[in-house]
Amino acid sequence: MLLRHTKKEVMEREALTINPAKTCQPIGAMYAALGIHGCLPHSHGSQGCCSYHRSTLTRHYKEPVMAATSSFTEGASVFGGQANLVTAINNIFMVYEPDLIAVHSTCLSETIGDDLQQIVTKAKDDGKIPEGKHVIYAPTPSFVGSHVTGYANMVAAMAEQFAENTDKQLDQINIVAGWMEPADMREIKRIAKELGVSIQLFPDTSDVLDAPQTGKHVFYPKGGISVPALKSTGDSKSSIALGCFSGEPGAIALDKKCTVPFKTEDIPVGLRATDRFLMSLGKAAGKKIPESITDERGRLVDLMTDMEQYFHGRKVALFGDPDALIPLTEFLLDLNMKPVHIVSGTPGKLFEQRMRDILADSVPDANIKNGSQADIYLLHQWIKNEPVDLLIGNTYGKYIARDEDIPFVRHGFPILDRIGHSYFPSVGYMGGLRLAEKILEALMDRQDRDAPEESFELVM
Ligand code: SF4
């Protein structure tokens, strides 16, 4: 048993996290920055931080993730990293020729007190930023928050530092993407196209972290929102933020700077969240839901009906990012399952209340916790006390699944031990079909594995 040290008895902990259900802020900032075309993310800290962020993204997406670093050594760690960053900006534009550099801080540079705005201004004043090129920056101290916070901070920085209001309203809607896979972002664009709505989706990592293999190495893949498109978001009619933790801060920043009104929706995972997103998008753009989308919904409802007998009453434990867990929990309820243990390492008061509201009628006594002490160790303890039929979460859940012999569906970030997950959307009705199929497959594989010979059935 790899997790044999996990005790069944749950004790209150205040200053200890064991197996966190989150990762570090700059990883989120780096992921968001890759959603701008021609962007080179830059980590203002030590080489080790940058290597960790890059390798986590590379292992999840199975794509080379480019990023630069301020390469702090002892001197910069004591006296600050201004000289390193100004030199880095100069070198990066000369050698790697990006359209923009997106700088995020790290624990070290934040502890020293480096002021990114002041350093970038100095680089500009010193003529280190060529004409037509850009440097944006976001604070991402990893001793607070999580990768979701880092993502949200970088998305807000995009809005604050790029959006322009020219007083010429454009017939377009901004969609501020919460943390989703590249395939999810592509699916959002497809849905908008079906509705006939012109959108600006940002960030947009489709065709960046799932760019086609052409046999040629391209340093900056064709995907990502362009800088002119980002600027135009200030002239959009309105914004829809997807996810109150990862998407909403970007929409708030845009509203503050350019007075673009916004509505926050859940990331459209499952039936009801997709319904709400479509209604919001249709209303914002004055478009009706086309028959093709209604048909997709009908297919998902049909599948859910067919599957319901296998899902009914099955207990589920899940962990991950709040914006992913909220609609997923709602979808599990729609499938007639019982989410009984839910953990997210990302802090934020809203999460538990939202979950309680969703589960109020069906699982009022569910275990729900988020923040630093809401870790995978606690989830394991809860499972020991009340076993479940299914575990849903990122790769780190495989240790619990193995020790407790629970069917396991990989969902969320990071997934380090499988390939292909980022190519299939989980959002929209099509994404719902895939999620439901994945869950049923895990449950039925277990049923087959455990069935005695006399009840090993061809038709189940
Ligand atoms: S937690 Fe802090 S020190 Fe560790 S990799 Fe992240 S930014 Fe670097």
List the topology elements.
Blueprint: H1 25-33, E1 39-44, H2 47-61, E2 68-69, H3 74-79, H4 82-95, E3 100-105, H5 107-112, H6 116-125, E4 134-138, H7 147-162, E5 170-176, H8 182-195, E6 199-202, H9 227-232, E7 236-242, H10 248-258, E8 262-265, H11 271-285, H12 291-311, E9 315-319, H13 322-334, E10 338-344, H14 350-359, E11 367-370, H15 376-385, E12 390-393, H16 398-404, E13 408-410, H17 428-450
Parallel strand pairs: 1-2, 1-3, 3-4, 5-6, 5-7, 7-8, 9-10, 9-12, 10-11, 12-13
Helix pairs in contact: 1-2, 1-7, 4-6, 7-10, 12-17, 13-14
Iron/sulfur cluster (SF4) binds at residues 24, 26, 45, 49, 52, 106-107, 142.
The ordered string of helix (H) and strand (E) elements is HEHEHHEHHEHEHEHEHEHHEHEHEHEHEH
In whole angstroms, the N-to-C terminal distance is: 32 Å
Q: Which whole number gives the mean pLDDT?
A: 97
Main beta sheet: 5 strands, parallel
What is the C-level CATH assignment of the largest domain?
Answer: Alpha Beta
Strand content: 5-15%
Number of discrete domains: 3
Associated small molecules: iron/sulfur cluster
Q: Might you state the CATH topology name of the largest domain?
A: Rossmann fold
DSSP helical segment count: 17
